[in-house]
Every structure is written in C-alpha cells, then in structure tokens.
Design brief:
Blueprint lengths: L11 H4 L2 H41 L4 H6 L2 H4 L9 H8 L2 E6 L5 E6 L16 E3 L1 H7 L2
Antiparallel strand pairs: 1-2, 2-3
C-alpha cells in the first residue's frame, strides 16, 4: 500500500535529501511571510485612506484635494502666528474652525499633534467634527 515510503532509513530518491527539504520548507515560509506582510500592509493603507477620506468629507473636498491645500486654506481664519508648530501648540485640544469648500465653517475638536518636532515640515493631528453637536446645543 505505501510502497517505498515506509522504508527506513528513508531513501533519498523517494523522500528527497535534507537540502531539498530545507529548501522547500524555507520557500514555503518565505511565501507565507510575504503574504502575511502584504495583507498587513494593505489593511494599514486602507485604514489610513479611510481616515484621510473622512477628513476630506468633513471639509467638502476630494482626498487628493486635501493633500494640495495649505494651512491657511484648511483653517477658516488661520491665525497669524509665527509657525505651524506655534499654531498647533496654541490650539491643541480646543475647538477650531475649519474652512469647508462651500464657504461654510466646520467646527472640530483638534487633538495635540502626535508627530511634531521642531524640524518637521508637517504635523499630525486628529479632528472630531462637532458642528452637528454644537448646532443641537444652540452654540
């Protein structure tokens, strides 16, 4: 029934050599690892795109359009402070007014920047849209 598979010691022409086994196991492990990291990276990119899309919807723009906007085009009345960093420090964890594409004002709670160093040309902050909540409260 099993033929030469049960012969001990194992025959190399039936089972292959140790080198061929290591090669096969290594190849399978490499493919599995590559597939795992590919799926993980795709999920991370999808989440990042979803967050980017949510902000774009909040200010009435397309996601690509948000990337091309400058600081003074995002904030309704951009303060005339010295730098982006000083503005982010001044308005961290407060309600800010964002400029919607249609000219209206969107009020949002701006977080403290998660990635901000003195030599960076960008900052990373989260915004929570409060416009509807403030309308309901009559503010």
């Amino acid at each position: 029934m099993w033929g030469d598979l049960w012969h001990f010691p194992f025959w190399a022409d039936v089972w292959g050599t140790v080198a061929s086994w290591f090669g096969a196991v290594g190849t399978v492990a490499s493919v599995a690892t590559a597939a795992f990291y590919y799926v993980k990276n795709q999920r991370r990119e999808e989440k990042a795109q979803a967050r980017h899309t949510a902000f774009a919807e909040m200010v009435g723009c397309e996601p690509d359009e948000v990337l091309s906007r400058r600081f003074h085009q995002i904030f309704h009345q951009a303060p005339a402070l010295e730098s982006l960093l000083s503005v982010l420090h001044a308005f961290a964890n407060t309600v800010v007014e964002l400029a919607h594409k249609d000219g209206s004002v969107v009020r949002a709670l701006m977080s403290r920047s998660a990635a901000m160093r003195a030599d960076d040309q960008f900052a990373l902050a989260a915004f929570q849209d409060l416009t509807e909540q403030l309308w309901e409260e009559g503010r």
